[in-house]
Amino acid sequence: MTGPRQGQGNEGSYAHLIRITESVKAGKLGMPGVPEAALRVRQLIATEAGAAEVAAGMAADPSLAAYILKVANGVSQRSHQQVTSLSTAVTRLGLRLVGVMVTHYMLMQLADAAGKRMRSQVEELYNRSRLLAAYCHALARRHSAVPPEDAMLAGLLHDLGAFPVLAYVAGHAELRSDPAAVEALMARVREPVGGVMLRTWHCPPGIVEAIVHRRQLVRSRPANAGPDLADVLTAAQVELYRDDEGAPCWEWPASAPALKRLGLNADSPFVDGDPTRVALEEAGDLLAH
Fold it and tell me: Which of 39, 92, 165, 203 is 20 to 30 A away from residue 101, measured at CA?
């Protein structure tokens, strides 16, 4: 009798988790797309460095610098004055939004660096994260006092752990040939691996906490508490997966506390109203660069 295939069962998943986590920490998971300069800029923003220092950090990577300048000059900024310096770009966007866009740049690099073996899965993951980020930004703007930039960042990073898992699978033929094993592995290890990645990417504690709580229907909150970042992320997931019966949030009740705090009902689309639709389109514009 043969034993369980690699990647199946708790012991196999735990072994994979240890390998993936160690590889992430050592930077040896075949994800060369994340540039050191971008990580450095995220670290500078996390430590509340000044705009000049952040601009200098971005200047170390010409591709990142060009991307931020492109965003600053994008249609969503509603300005007719051309931005040609990074310091002006940082001032125009604000450090919060610069941090979001640097993170988006890092995700784009991960997607671009994906090998042929798992490219379609990585691109699907990237596109889903980008769309969820747009929903988060729009819902935060229209239905809460949560900073939209924080909401967008949480949306971009909500499934960060899936990227290194896919990179790991790409290097193991026995997993690639067994979709069920990949699905089981992803379900068991993407969250803990994501926690390691979030720390590596210098994510603010509030963002990490919201991602951890994003699927909790009931959280201990004061009776009169307003919506928080985790509520926005939860609602964005409900909207994103509204027509996906296989999604984990498919059976979330219309009266879920997170939705009630936002004044939303799961029975009706959240972005039907014109103001929210406009906010969603503007968020999408930001992430289209």
Answer: 165
Tokens of 222: 């004061």
Amino acid at position 103, single letter? T
In this predicted structure, what is the pLDDT of residue 103? 94
E strands present in 56-169: none
CA distance 247 to 101: 27
pLDDT attached to residue 10: 57
Report if residue 2 sits inside a domain.
no
pLDDT of residue 1: 35
Q: Position of tokens 């027509």?
A: 243
Overall number of domains in the chain = 1
pLDDT score recorded for residue 217: 65
Q: Which domain holds residue 101?
A: 9-286
Helix 119-143 × helix 229-240 angle, to 10°:
120
Among residues 116, 184, 113, 122, the alpha carbon closest in space to that of 159 is found at 122
Residue 98: its pLDDT value, please?
Answer: 95
Element containing residue 53 per DSSP (H, E): helix 51-59
Spatial neighbors of 177 by CB under 8 A, at least 6 apart, are none
Cα atoms in the 13 Å half-sphere on the side-chain side of 76: 18
Cα 33–chain centre separation: 16
CATH number at residue 275: 1.10.3210.10
Give residue 235's identity as a one-letter amino acid code. A
**Tokens, residue 26:** 């050592």
- Given a contact cutoff of 8 angstroms between Cβ atoms, the answer to whether 226 and 144 are in contact is yes
Asked whether residue 140 is domain-assigned, the answer is yes
Asked whether residue 104 is domain-assigned, the answer is: yes
Q: Is residue 1 part of a domain?
A: no
pLDDT confidence of residue 99:
94
Mean pLDDT by 10 residues, the chain (289 residues): 43 74 66 77 92 95 95 70 90 93 92 80 93 95 94 95 86 85 86 86 90 77 88 90 66 72 83 79 86
